[in-house]
Specification:
Blueprint: H1 14-30, H2 34-41, H3 77-95, H4 98-109, H5 112-116, H6 118-134, H7 139-149, H8 158-168, H9 175-188, H10 201-220, E1 223-225, H11 226-233, H12 237-249, E2 254-258, E3 263-267, H13 272-309
Antiparallel strand pairs: 1-3, 2-3
Helix pairs in contact: 1-2, 1-3, 2-3, 3-4, 4-6, 6-7, 6-8, 7-8, 11-12
Length: 310
């Protein structure tokens, strides 16, 4: 069944093709064949689930292949969309790709049937919040974080709104107080639909808090002693240096550590154009200063000569 290229069958209905490919993906995931599951899943373009209600169906012309109607047991396009993203959640959970898991949950959450049912949308929104927080910081994660904060339904979940606010506000998060406040909510995820948070989730959550705190410190300090840095992060010197090095290697920011002096220096990343513009501006200022100095010297000389003649 995995070898059948159903996408080449021109007369088969679109929903029937999608359902068949999704069944192939499910079988691969059940067999732990994640590579083949990824290849099969790429045959489905997520944009196919966007239904354009204003677009009229084209009438078939003479000579065109006749597309058969889908059998009644084939799920609707909306149900297929949910099935697709649930399979994608299974696939990305294997790789602990939290951002892609979050995007899959968000796609399910955006369906009309999900938003109309608070019993389903509320647990889904909780999942979105947790996986957003667990995702490493990058532009896509930041954009999704801010858009989720604007969701009106998040007002019914004040704890999760505060959770996202923690990672948007540029303030240091104290891990002990943070975990004491959210431990119950974190452990409660095991009883919610959609699967539990993975066994690595706790360590990854702590890692995200540390990364957030390092980013906050890098925003407010240009130079800081390593001892004070470790004190702000509530970590040992070795752990602080380890996490700092990992973030520098991942190019989250630029920093240098003077280990003998115990000082961390943060620098603003500049591209070549900014460096060249800065250099040109500095040269221009220098030439202006030289010109003004020459003018002042010449002026004082003239005044001095006039005074001597008088």
């Amino acid at each position: 069944m995995q070898e059948i290229a159903v996408e080449t069958f021109g007369a088969m209905a679109k929903t029937e093709k999608i359902a068949f490919i999704l069944e192939q993906v499910r079988l691969c995931l059940d067999c732990n064949d994640y590579m083949r599951a990824q290849i099969l899943a790429r045959k489905i373009n997520p944009r196919v689930f966007v239904v354009d209600t204003g677009k009229e169906k084209k009438k078939p012309k003479e000579g065109d292949a006749v597309i058969e109607e889908a059998p009644p047991e084939i799920p609707s396009l909306l149900e297929l969309k949910r099935m697709y993203y649930e399979l994608m959640i299974r696939y990305h959970s294997h790789k602990n790709d939290y951002l892609e898991i979050c995007r899959s949950y968000h796609a399910i959450y955006d369906t009309s049937t999900m938003k109309e049912d608070p019993l389903q949308s509320t647990p889904m929104l909780r999942k979105i919040c947790w996986y957003l927080v667990l995702s490493p910081h990058d532009p896509m994660q930041s954009s999704l974080l801010n858009s989720t904060l604007e969701d009106k339904k998040l007002q019914d979940l004040p704890k999760f709104r505060a959770l996202l606010k923690h990672f948007v506000t540029m303030e240091v998060i104290h891990w002990d107080a943070f975990w004491a406040f959210y431990e119950g909510e974190f452990n409660m995820e095991s009883s919610l639909p959609g699967g539990v948070l993975g066994p690595r989730a706790f360590e990854d959550l702590r890692q995200r808090v540390i990364e957030h705190n390092i980013l906050v410190v890098s925003k407010y300090y240009s130079r800081i002693r390593l001892v004070r840095f470790a004190e702000l992060l509530n970590l040992s010197l070795q752990e602080t240096e380890k996490h700092l090095s990992e973030m520098v290697v991942s190019k989250a920011f630029i920093a240098k550590v003077d280990r003998p002096a115990g000082i961390v220096s943060f620098q603003i990343r500049k591209d070549s154009n900014e460096t060249l513009n800065s250099w040109a501006t500095s040269i221009e200022r220098l030439l202006d200063l030289v010109e003004k100095s020459c003018h002042q010297i010449h002026r004082e000389t003239m005044v001095h000569r006039v005074t001597l003649k008088a």
